[in-house]
Design goal:
Shape: globular
Helix content: 40-55%
Radius of gyration: 22 Å
CATH topology: TIM Barrel
Order of helices and strands: HHHHHEEEHEHEHEHHHHHEHEHEHEH
CATH superfamily: Aldolase class I
Strand order of the largest sheet: 3-10-9-8-7-6-5-4
Structural class: alpha/beta
CATH architecture: Alpha-Beta Barrel
Number of helices: 17
């Protein structure tokens, strides 16, 4: 073969493309997984904003373990089972969703992007999944409903000692088409979020010298902040203290199952209890009128050193029976995690940090990119597992969790990073 022929054959394998200017759209398209989106978010936002999303309680051991617990579960794929294009839809609380994935309630969402909850609601509507608006949202109950009138909207409630104020929120949500009420029960007091304390996070943000210069290094975020004004807690006015002080002054440490009975009388639609980790609590919640239980450790943002929800979901499923709806969050960063949660006993999962990374990285398109990644990964996992439907995932394809020894993984492994 002549040299000319070899050069011609080699050149046919090389496809050079002219360089293009980087854009938000191209950066999001280049993101292959949630880790890539997280890194993009880290580069585009000031540290105090990223730390608020990324961080957890105290030493953040629960944050880290939520992810390693997923890695400790192993699949046993079934073969020679035609799957084609798996059906990712799920039945949940009287409605069908296009994906078994929802967007969890997150406070102070407007710190990540000025469109905040409105952008998230529109992205959720585009993918046909539910979105829970937090009591501590930076867009009001009414504004989110107006921004995405066709979305499946849930409202997450922190029941305050002042029941009249809570009742006002409940009625506003009911009057604006929110189909489910999510009562969070793992916030008797505020968790010790040391990253936020060290950064002096408050609402409205009060920039110190170090945070001022850090913000200046992120002009895109700073310009959006200046153009839209400081985010605020849109559903009430008490927003001048530090975040931990605000939580401590707002929530009710005396909350009990008796209050659940009261809430059941006030809310005629679906009632979901979020923050359950013990089988007995799950059973009791259903006994007191809950329509679903949300198994969660608040993403590691409340009590540190808790069990991971993925490790207890099977036991809770056994306790409540096969037909009562169970939702799971905390630690989900991939479609493999979604498949593992569903195979272990959850009916549905929610993500929090994952979509906030997308919001920080690119607003509504960033949230949509996260949902697309999770959708693609879940579909691929189901195809490889031989599961044509969500129901098929529960056919003995998940083995008991392994004991994880992080020393066996390199220091730069995802399993040794607190990527939250």
């Amino acid at each position: 073969m002549s040299l000319r022929t070899r050069i011609r054959d080699f050149s046919s394998l090389v496809q050079l493309q002219a360089p293009a200017l980087p854009t938000t759209a191209s950066a999001l398209h280049a993101a292959r997984d949630i880790g890539d989106v997280r890194e993009l978010a880290r580069r585009r936002t000031p540290r105090f904003v990223f730390d608020y999303v990324d961080g957890g309680s105290f030493r953040e051991e629960s944050v880290a373990y939520n992810q390693t617990a997923f890695a400790g579960h192993r699949f046993a794929p079934r073969v020679l089972r035609p799957v084609g294009q798996p059906d990712l839809s799920a039945e949940l609380l009287g409605g069908r969703t296009k994906l078994p994935i929802g967007l969890a309630p997150t406070g102070l969402t407007g710190l990540s992007h000025p469109e905040g909850e409105k952008a998230v609601a529109r992205a959720a509507a585009a993918f046909g999944v539910p979105f829970s608006v937090s009591t501590m949202a930076t867009s009001s109950i009414e504004d989110v409903a107006a921004a995405a009138p066709d979305s499946r909207r849930w409202f997450q409630l922190y029941l305050r000692t002042d029941r009249a104020k809570s009742l006002d929120l409940i009625r506003r949500a009911l009057n604006h088409g929110y189909e489910s009420l999510v009562l969070t029960v793992d916030t008797a007091v505020a968790g010790r979020r040391l990253r936020d304390d060290r950064n002096g996070l408050a609402l409205p943000p009060k920039l110190r010298v170090d945070t001022f210069f850090d913000t200046a290094r992120h002009p895109g975020w700073a310009l959006r902040f200046l153009a839209n004004g400081a985010p605020k807690l849109a559903n009430f006015s008490e927003s001048t203290n530090s975040i931990s002080e605000l939580v401590s002054s707002m929530f009710d440490p005396q909350l009990s199952f008796d209050d659940l009975d009261w809430l059941r009388e006030q809310w005629p639609k679906n009632l979901i209890i979020k923050g359950v980790l013990h089988p007995d609590d799950a059973r009791t919640a259903f006994d007191h009128g809950a329509d679903a239980v949300w198994v969660s450790n608040h993403g590691g943002r409340q009590m540190d050193r808790t069990v991971a929800p993925i490790d207890v979901i099977a036991e809770i499923r056994a306790a409540v029976g096969p037909h009562r709806p169970l939702i799971l969050d905390s630690g989900i960063r991939s479609g493999l995690d979604v498949a593992a949660a569903l195979a272990a006993g959850a009916d549905f999962v929610h993500v929090g940090r994952a979509f906030l990374y997308g919001l920080m990285a690119g607003g509504q398109p960033g949230v949509e990119r996260v949902l697309q990644i999770l959708s693609d990964e879940t579909r691929n996992a189901m195809q490889l597992l031989g599961a044509a439907t969500i129901t098929d995932l529960r056919q003995g394809q998940l083995h008991a969790p392994l004991c994880m020894n992080l020393d066996q993984y390199p220091e730069d492994s995802v399993l040794n990073k607190r990527t939250a």
